[in-house]
Specification:
218 residues; two-stranded antiparallel ribbon; 2 helices; 6% helix
């Protein structure tokens, strides 16, 4: 089993087609910038190419904490699933905090996870070991240190949702089926590069059959 950590890799071009947070979204012709129920534009958070598709993640930051961006059913977040071919930079709304201050490049680093070894070292009171949590805590951890350079970890691609209860898994709004987990998102390195997730972990889900996406935090 392997956890694919997303690691901060310096600044990125604003219109890069590679993994990144911030910058300008790439979308098909005719794309309309998503708007929150509060009336303001959502802020573009992340461009996540996955195979032949791209996940484009938006959250409301017009009045942080006032709109329920943590709820998968809220209009305060949006996840678009686009075919990767033919995407182009889109026009940015003139008002509202529609973009992060800085675009950040992401590289993927695979971390092997052996559930049997993790079980042997686990504390019974802590419950089942979590692959993402273990990989994140161990990132660039030096001997004798409890934690590594966790702030460099911007999330992960694929795998299982970390410590998320089954009753929080979102249902597709089109077919009502349980959506597939796609990615974790962490806030980030610095105030300039960070995505405001209210100090929580972000979860991105997708229904490929219906071309639907969802987002929540926990």
């Amino acid at each position: 089993m392997q956890t694919n950590l997303m690691i901060y890799d310096g600044p990125a071009p604003a219109d890069s087609d590679a993994l990144r947070t911030g910058g300008v979204p790439l979308a098909p012709a005719g794309f309309v910038w998503p708007v929150c129920g509060c009336g303001g534009p959502l802020q573009f958070f992340a461009h996540l190419p996955v195979g032949d598709d791209v996940l484009s993640v938006f959250l409301c930051q017009n009045d942080p904490g006032a709109c329920e961006f943590w709820d998968a059913r809220s209009s305060a977040n949006r996840v678009h699933l686009f075919p990767r071919e033919g995407l182009r930079p889109v026009a940015v709304p003139e008002s509202g905090p529609a973009l992060l201050p800085v675009a950040s490049a992401i590289r993927v680093h695979g971390v092997a996870f052996d559930p049997e070894e993790a079980d042997e070292g686990a504390d019974e009171e802590e419950g089942e070991p979590d692959a993402y949590d273990i990989a994140r805590q161990g990132w660039r951890r030096e001997p004798g240190e409890r934690f590594g350079k966790q702030r460099e970890v911007l999330g992960s691609l694929g795998g299982s949702p970390s410590y998320l209860e089954d009753d929080r898994l979102p249902a597709c709004p089109s077919c009502a089926g349980t959506m597939e987990f796609a990615a974790h998102l962490e806030e980030g390195m610095t105030r300039e590069t960070a995505m405001n997730l209210g100090g929580q972990l972000g979860y991105v889900f997708v229904c490929r059959a219906c071309r639907e996406g969802a987002f929540l935090t926990d």
